[in-house]
Amino acid sequence: MSVLIVADTGPLVILAKLDHLHLLRQLFTEIRIPETVLVEATALAYRPDAKRIVGFSAQYANVVPDLAPNDPDYLDYGLDAGETQAISLAKQACCPVLLDERRGRSVAKQEHVDVLGTVGLLLKAKQAGLIPEMGCLLDAMLEQDYRLAPALVQRAKVLAGED
């Protein structure tokens, strides 16, 4: 089990839609969610995924205040507010960030912040025996219009021993 991760909006929302937020607490001892990320992820409060995120964050996550733009750890690369906060907080905490958006991943890597995507998280869960198969979850992500490159889906299935 890894110690700490900072989560961005996209992975939280898709994990909530799949009803698999529990994987975060099974794989990490501490989950930090920047305030801005929580606001973004729960903006449509009536939706079931938003309700799951609210419950999960109240019970299992540490919702942390956003870094101010004048904070030396604040990174401004023109990303959206949630990504900026997630990457900045992960760098400050010297931990990985759970992030899927391509540009954000590039910035995180440039800042020497380890990145774990939702597909990588599912692969870790499969390897740890926390889920029986990954393919159906990848298909469900695609059904939710979550953008995944076909090559990534294929590679993940091969790594999970499902292809």
UniProtKB/TrEMBL annotation:
Mind telling me which Pfam families this protein's record contains? DUF3368
Top-level taxon of the source organism: Bacteria
- Protein name (database record): DUF3368 domain-containing protein
